[in-house]
TrEMBL record:
Keyword Membrane: no
Top-level taxon in the UniProt lineage: Bacteria
Name assigned to this protein: 3'-5' exonuclease
Domain called Exonuclease: residue spans: 17-182
Organism whose genome encodes this protein: Pararhodobacter zhoushanensis
Keywords annotated in UniProt: Exonuclease, Hydrolase, Nuclease
Organism lineage: Bacteria, Pseudomonadati, Pseudomonadota, Alphaproteobacteria, Rhodobacterales
Length: 195
């Protein structure tokens, strides 16, 4: 497997609204990232995804491998986290980064700490929070996890694949915006300034 380059990342000449990010991990340590996926949402709400395996340089737990289907053979020739985050940082530095729950941010921060790297200054938002604003009736009635949202909102994706989960998080944001008539900034309570 050839390492990815900057040219492999999704491009939107007109610009991006936000990027959704998801990770899968090799074991219970959030820093053990073995796959990263992003879903880039253009100004026209079109979505382009990008996914890569990441060599976590730790042992895989059977539980995690059973969950997402990724094992040592998948990551043997994959880039390490340092190379992958360096590739993503220029794209994500200027965009809101949406995760579904706080796990992905913790994983990125943990993986940065594990290699002694400064954490990228990404502006994180949470699509769970957005889903709670869009569908408050799901509280106590299945919740706002991706598996339940997949069923209730008719989403089509393969759960526990980083690229697929990132796309699903992006779709949740877009559907919540449509349902509420509010942009994700308002749903998150952000006050954005012009760049």
């Amino acid at each position: 497997m050839n390492p990815h380059t900057q040219a492999d990342l999704p491009r939107f000449d007109a610009g991006l609204r936000f990027v959704a990010l998801d990770v899968e991990t090799a074991c219970s340590d959030p820093a053990s990232i073995c796959q990263i996926g992003i879903a880039c949402v253009g100004l026209d709400n079109s979505i382009r995804t990008w996914t890569t395996y990441v060599n976590p340089q730790v042992a895989f737990s059977p539980f995690n491998t059973q969950l997402h289907g990724i094992g040592p053979a998948h990551v043997r020739h994959a880039p390490g986290f340092a190379e992958t985050v360096a590739l993503l940082e220029p794209l994500l530095a200027g965009q809101p980064v949406i995760q579904h729950s706080s796990f992905d941010r913790r994983a990125i921060h943990g993986a940065c700490a594990a290699i002694g790297r400064v954490v990228p200054p990404w502006q994180w938002g949470d699509s769970v929070r957005i889903a709670r604003m869009g569908w408050p009736e799901f509280k106590g009635n299945g919740g706002h996890g991706l598996a339940h949202l997949k069923q209730r909102l008719g989403l089509s994706f393969r759960h526990h694949d980083a690229g697929e989960d990132a796309r699903a998080a992006a779709e949740v944001v877009l559907l919540a915006e449509e349902r509420t008539g509010l942009g994700f900034d308002a749903l998150l309570g952000w006050v954005r300034t012009a760049r």
